[in-house]
Amino acid sequence: MLKRVVAEAAANLLASRQRSALALLGIVIGAAAVIAMLNVGAIARNETIRQFRQLGTDILTLRADGNTGLGNFQLADLEALPMELPAVAEVAPFVIGGGSAQHEGQVAVSSQLGVTAAFAQVTRMRMQGGRFISDYDRYELYAVVGAGLAQQLSTPYAPVRVGSGLRIGRYVFTVIGVVEPMLPSPMMPVDIDNTLFVSIPNVRRIMANPSLSMAILRMRPDADAEAVTAQLQRHLGPKLRDQRLSVQSARQLIAGMQSQMQLFTLLLGAVGAIALVLGGVGVMNIMLVSIAERRREIGVRLAIGAEPGDIRTLFLAEAVLLSVTGGVLGIFLGIAGAWGFAWLSGWEFVLSATAAPLGAGVSVAVGIFFGFYPAVMASRLDPIEALRAE
Amino acid sequence: MLELVDIGRSFRVGPGEVHILRHLSLTVAAGQLVSIMGGSGSGKTTLMNIIGLLDKPTSGQYRIDGQDVLKAEARELSRLRNRLIGFVFQSFFLLPRLNAWRNVALPLMYRGTPEAEARRRAIAMLERVGLAERTEHMPAMLSGGQKQRVAIARALVGEPRVILADEPTGALDPKVSQEIMELFLALKREYGVLILIITHDPGVAAQCERQVVLADGVLTEAPRGC
Fold first, then answer.
1. CATH entry, B2-94+160-221, from 3.40.50.300, 3.90.1210.10, 3.30.70.270, 1.10.10.10
2. Could you tell me if B54 lies within 8 Å of chain A, comparing CB atoms?
3. From the CA of B104, how many Å to the nearest CA of chain A?
4. Which of A242, B36, B62, B138 has the most other CB atoms within 10 Å of its CB?
5. Number of domains within chain A
């Protein structure tokens, strides 16, 4: 019975191919937008998790702000933190700057950080070769480079590796380590891949106005970010005198990113919903035209014993079939769209498990909702009038 | 047996009423072939709609095989039409997207007959009307006479009590018309079904064993051999 109804509906839709295809278009776009929205949401969630996986979520970034620009921590104050506050596991103060480095005629501009040995532990970086800056390096002209920077400075004949010489300003630094490639983290003001590291004492040699204005800090695993933030404000605030201390936690950042993502998802969702409604109206329009054209057929069916319910089922089946076809095409288009989005933004593509069933469900619902009125209209036709129609 | 007793049908037009049929009575026995003649505006179509259970009279009684068919509601009317009435139309009214046997099987499908059985019976009926070779053809590939044969097969396949034919030969040339009339006569004998042919062609009417004339909503029996 169902099979026959569907087969008949399909034959009727195929008989007016062009019109069916036009009605399909709206549904396809609507379903595609909904699917793309769900999938992009999943991709973004996955990307957030991926970005924080490397550094973890128990990270805080500290920044001192003076009245005229970056502030200045006392190195000793920061390095004493793990002893004084039990919730702080490790802390890595750093000086941030930027400039160019030269190697065998290759010049590259990058971020430059003055760091202590703790930086490697806090950021969980791994070395491709050599070692990281140690606290004993002090005024030695040693530098560590990120993987991307190393590549930029390499020439085909002279790759940057441990032992290479880098000219920075008036000094030549020896590369003592190359960092493994790392994902940029939203918690870090610089992309580690594209950064040159030196010891804090060396910073004066390569930067004009260095200030120890930032630190990255790892809490103990069970610590509460807000409580630690408050402790830090109480503890460090007085020592900073008239400077302001700002603390950013990974969780805070994730929450911010998620609310931003939610807005984006909502927007796409609204576009999808509007397109689906327009598609639904298109289906309704096509069904009404089709019913007007097939009045006599309806009359004949009623005359030979079709019940109003049979007529309703026939036209409802056509509307639902139309929107299901549109929905299926929309699922493919939406997934392709999400894939394109992932490709363009360089994010990892993941398939959302809810996208396809939800898209299919929504398009069936649209078909039933917008097909119902025309189908009921058709079933209420007076057979006498319908038979007289030309 | 079909009984129409004192049937009246009026339509409200503005403030007044227009009486299309007045005190019309007609009894037709099973196995009879009756022609109903009448010019335009005689109430022919209204009478046909009432007999075909598509319309209800404003007064009077209508029984088929003793069953009062005027009490039925919309859904029940559909079932009664399906079981009791077979329609044949002037312009055939085959469904263009269904092939010949599916067109014929349609009344059985609406009755819930399984497809395999409906197909068997539809093909048997097509063989009976002389279209054994055309069961898979689409209506567009059939001639006018063949289409009307398919329509007759569709009207008969559900074994109705009444075949109601509205100008069944109106769209056909004389030779084919004659063949269709001969088919009606043969089927009437074979199935004992009661056939009403509504026509304005005296040649067609002359072949029916009984002829009635409708004029101004009143039915009069024409003398035999007219």
1. 3.40.50.300
2. yes
3. 10
4. B36
5. 2
